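Narrative progress, year one. The postdoctoral researcher (J.K.) led the effort to move from monomer predictions toward full complexes, under supervision of the PI. The following entry was the first complex the group processed end to end, covering 432 residues in total.
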Amino acid sequence: MAHDKDDTITGRITRALAERIIAGEFAPGSKLRQDHFAEEFGASHVPVREAFRRLEAQGLVVSEPRRGVRVASFDIAEVREVAEMRAALEVLALRHAAPHLTGAILNEAEAINRAGENAPDVRAWEEANRAFHRLILAPCGMPRLMTAIDDLHAASARFLFSGFRMEWEAPTDQDHRAILKALRERQFDVAAATLARHVKWIGTPPGTKTRSRTAS
Amino acid sequence: MAHDKDDTITGRITRALAERIIAGEFAPGSKLRQDHFAEEFGASHVPVREAFRRLEAQGLVVSEPRRGVRVASFDIAEVREVAEMRAALEVLALRHAAPHLTGAILNEAEAINRAGENAPDVRAWEEANRAFHRLILAPCGMPRLMTAIDDLHAASARFLFSGFRMEWEAPTDQDHRAILKALRERQFDVAAATLARHVKWIGTPPGTKTRSRTAS
DNA sequence: GGATTTAAAATTATAGATAAAATTTAATAT
DNA sequence: ATATTAAATTTTATCTATAATTTTAAATCC
């Protein structure tokens, strides 16, 4: 029953590095040296290399053959790309999850949403946000889709923590409320449309931040 | 210049194994032993392990810690999942690519489509099919989206070669024609809807194969 | 003084070897 | 004969060491 926590050294290094990259500890484009992390984690370079390959697949680092790996750089175009991919895939997931959403799940989602509104910092808010999305999408029963969405969430979080979008408010939680309301009323099309708009909002420039809430 | 072909041993092993898994050489669920392939490719097991990690990210193998990797098993549910993800992402790509599609590109797509119709076997047809999709989607200028679509194409091809769907006909190339026609007339919504239906068709049971062409 | 070539240092990629874990096989007891 | 336990073998995961490549630095030449 306990899901494999991937207790291997490669797994631990992968998780630790992913978290630090998302948190913005390394500048985009900076080199990641395998020997350095091998020493830091008290391991050899082999598991570090395997961790690099996993991070590469997640899009967190880019690897040039024989030149090592660098932290993936992301410009505004890539942020919007990730947002659009998320919108497309989360809508798909919601369409399949909606029929299986029970009242209990929606209540739990509402509680998570409240926690997000009271979050003291961006970090806590992002965690609540991710939990909210995951909770209402997971019942779709499509594992490959869920991992793809998870990877895109990580990329989004990286942007969120980068300070690119500085004035962090919690207004998107209003979108969450609207989504929950639509789901309770079995208005799946409305819920999907709101979710799409909500997800794409993260890639919009700060100045137009209200547009996405007024436009249909 | 131009040596981003990943000339590393890890890259070669990854491509070779991916091709063989897609071709159905290994039974789904069968174990892949690293020492075996290390010997076969005349390499050590380290690059084999790195290749495994890449294949894992592509969804071609699954890895249980300390138990090795197995060829990913796919049931009909997973095939449909991949088809729906492809539909969602390819529609997104087409929407961004459409404005940049020139007449020359569409002519080339038509030539590829003809080649697909004259393909002697499933293998050649799939290659033409993949080239067709890639050609009209690549101008979207979203690299992350394109690699995601490529991975899903690989999973689809695996199903196609598995003999699950045996009676292979080339009727989907009619869909290709319809897509090209709509693109030439700048009817992007029609093109997107046709593409979505076309991609999802691969996951439908054989008996209902005509449904997707008659339904709107 | 600036640019080009050469040498040195750092880093990646691979190989061979070792330890730990799991699966298989064998043996014993019921 | 079947089930349970224990030994043996196979396989994975990791480490240390070596070879090859790239980057950095210096030195020489124009």
